[in-house]
From TrEMBL:
Record Pfam families: Ras
Organism name: Collichthys lucidus
Family statement drawn from the similarity comment of this UniProt entry: Belongs to the small GTPase superfamily. RGK family.
Gene3D superfamilies in UniProt: P-loop containing nucleotide triphosphate hydrolases
Phylogenetic lineage: Eukaryota, Metazoa, Chordata, Craniata, Vertebrata
Domain of life: Eukaryota
Name of the featured protein: GTP-binding protein REM 2
Record keyword Mitochondrion present: no
Amino acid sequence: MCVYQQEFEDLSALLCEVCVLVFSVTDRRSFHRTAQLRLLLREIQPQTPIILVGNKSDLVRTREVTSQEAMSSAALYNCLYLEISASLDHRTPELLECAVRLARGQSPWPPGTSAEDMSCGGQRESITSRAKRFLSSLVPRYPREREVGKFLRQKSRSCHDLGAL
């Protein structure tokens, strides 16, 4: 990973395996600054994976940069996009795990998940529909499944531990 500080305007000597650019979703200037940095990074190191991170996702009312705007900007530069809240420690482990996976040349998301599952944009599924989906997975649809019980046949899932990478 690389850390950019304003003193280092010359990025030609910068070598990194993954670059994480963080901006505040409550400050449009920081978003524009990351766009400038992405241009510089793409000129100097076109193959380096870039993760664009929108911080302060918990401050919804003071938001100046929408999720859709940030996602389209990230797609324009072929970057990954995540929204986190560092103060609440929301999705920061996913960011670290994604950066480590990219540095190792692996897929940025854990096996079995997609970018849509991990990125934080667009409409979120309501708690009611998530509960319905969960309960429908427990209740069998056919009489034969009632005997065996779908719930008891499910395989356990291991946790996504950074140490397991």
